User: What shape does this take?
Amino acid sequence: MNRFIKNGLQFLLVLMTVIMIGIFLPSTPKASKSLLFAKIQKDQRLKETSSPRIIFVGGSNLSFSLNSQLIQEALQMPVINMGINEGIGIRYNLASIKRYIRKGDIIIVIPEYTQFYIQNRNCSVELARTILDLNKTNIELLEWQQIPSFLMEVPPYAFSKFNPFEYFFYSESDIYSVHSFNQYGDVNAHWNLAPRPFPPLAEIDTSKFNQDILQYILHFENEIKKKNAQLYISYPALQQLSFKNSIKSIRKVQKELEKTPLTIIGSPDRYIFKQELMFNSPYHLSKKGVDLRTMLLIEDLKTL
Amino acid sequence: MPFNSIEFAIFLPIIFFLYWFVTPRSLSLQNGLLLVGSYVFYGWWDYRFLALIIISSGVDYGVGIGLSKTENKTQRKLLLYCSLLMNLSLLGFFKYYNFFVESFTHAFTLFGNTMDIHRLQIILPVGISFYTFQTLSYTLDVYKRKITPTHDIISFFAFVSFFPQLVAGPIERAKHLLPQFSQKRTFEYHNGVDGLRQILWGLFKKVILADNCALLVDQVFENYTEMGGSTLVIGAVFFAFQIYGDFSGYSDIAIGTARLFGFNLMQNFNSPYFSRNLAEFWRRWHISLNTWFRDYIYIPLGGSKTGNFRTIFNVLTVFLISGLWHGANWTFLVWGLLNALLFLPLIFTQKNKQYLKSIAPHQLFPSWKEALQMGITFGLVVLGWIFFRSPSVKDALRYINGIFDGSIFEFPYLLITVLGKVKPLLILIFWLIEWLGRDQSYALKNIEKVTNRNIRWLIYLIIIGILFLYKGIAQEFIYFQF
Assistant: This one.
């Protein structure tokens, strides 16, 4: 038994050492080109652009399905699209922009439907990488319930530093790259590309609706009201088939949002898109789809 | 608590420590600890269902004692029926009530009548089919005087609920497992290391093979009407990989965990996809269940020694019950029927007892003939899995029809879209390791042959790294629902 315990502890020590080295090694070339690094430029723009401005907060439904320039021209206000990836989550996205919000700002939150079904304790790999790769001190923006799942993402992150595919044989994605974004924060790299096949969204378990996300958004709204900023919430553009597959969970989100005092822009049905307007995911639109979705949003924003 | 959870990663070292450092001098205390640990492990899902295990254990313990005290045939039969009735009633109610009600109602409507029987909102207790069969094996063996009943209540309750194999097997026979609870266990370094290595390989199967394949399989089966023929083929093949990785991975973790506590569980999978015909496949797949059916149903019915008609009946009975055991759905019955129909010709041509040894022993490659046989057998198994995975028989038939819609030679882009390029490569490497380890009780056991400790540790670190880097989205073990 003593030999077993001794060898076991030695192996654990080796494992921990590998993980610690991995954490503090610089970001890999592949990771440095990932779209998560776009957060640096977006935060920079958020810092530098003068208020009042329109700030979109959400996941890739925003980065891939919005033409911020059209909105800026139509509404004569600077637009910053903070959308990057759904995995980063609404909580962290809101928490990380709070410090930059100023008087007159309009924050439009457009989460993917699945965001309302992610539990508090979750910390996705994208969120963990956003913190570990970009700014390790931002761990303070996590809720304490997220820490255990954040810690679970540390070993994969650390081991990625030793993955040969992170250094060699990789090619920068044509669309999921730090270079895929325009100055407003929209991904425009796919605007001239042909659509790609993708699976539709599956049904979401409606029993897992997370009320805490709504509470967090309401709390955030109260906070920014103190700074004389305004918050609106809206629905993402979604492929028709995925809409059909997830209809129950979408209606649940709609019903729960309508119960809150939040100002809602549009409706889920207004942003349903046919297959020919999609690009490579149920939330990602082709250029034609992007422009149509943007025009719909502009119409809705003008009614406010 | 599932094996691939943080809770289990905390639970296991605690029980291990208490078992070997706090209670090592008393067998009763060790068994008591295993019993309490097993109930905590099971109660983590839903503590209310602990009552079912306790009832089941209590009745069979009592029946065993009763059987030891009487030689009267009628009384012995009554005791046996009491155990069968109680165990099968619980299983029948929780697992099959709604299925039979729906099927009965549906059959009634075929005659132009309508019927409204109340359906119940029943949650299926995790692992009920497994522990019911395990405890039944005890009563049946005591009844047939193959074993003597135990009077040690703690040992018996711990045997029924032994946490490593409680919820998804291997379904142990009392004859094999129960005596191990009465013997003093000593920790052996080699067993401990081998157990950990088997757990690691089981996790690899579950996290890398099964969970990654599940991503693709779910997409394909949920949207099969939108998919081309080649994608449907890939979806079905990957489901074959998924169910193997999921279930044999669980068995590996169970066997490895049991070894840490000084127990030996039976091998449950023996490279089934390298089989040369369907009979060999069924000797290598879910061995503990199939031998259970063989010993307690097929042979008591007369096996294949009582005429052709009777043989057909016996084979059909075993496969249909096996189908029904897997789930309360017509798809499982059709899966069982299909396998029976494919199995029967092997019996009548006496090919069911061919290929008792592993394929291509001591050779790197199989012969062309063996490769062809393996391919055909795998194809037939995959055909069956389509029924197993589909929500209804109609869906399965449509799925199969979709395979031949003319797009079977297209490249299945979904494979790369969903899994990327590295994961399919890892799956390929996995099968290579499985092939090289086909003569072992689990493929990673070959590492024992590496004498340099540093190289062995490097291999373990690489495997752990791959587990972290390429894990799929955690899925519940498929066999929990059975």
Remarks:
- Chain A has a mean pLDDT of 93.
- The interface with chain B takes residues 1, 3-4, 7, 11, 14-15, 18, 148, 152, 155-156, 159-160, 162-163, 165, 196-200, 202-203, 241, 245 of chain A (CB under 8 Å).
